[in-house]
Amino acid sequence: MTREDIYERLNEVFRDVFDDYSISVGDDTTAEDIDGWDSLMHITLIEAVEEEFNISFDMKTVVKMKNVGEMVDVIEDSI
User: Has residue 79 got a pLDDT over 90?
Assistant: First the structure.
């Protein structure tokens, strides 16, 4: 799976979780860039990403991720 494929799937996850079909995430996207991305929604998002890619993040990894690009790096390493 290419990085582009991961982004396509991630965009769908973000759009579903935040119920906003105009969202388009990139490497530098952070919680500050998306309305409603608070700590509670972060948990929902992580669960949705784990389900989409059939992976499991450990808490240490989740805390370290500072932007979507780092999330994609972790997904690439996990699949």
Answer: no
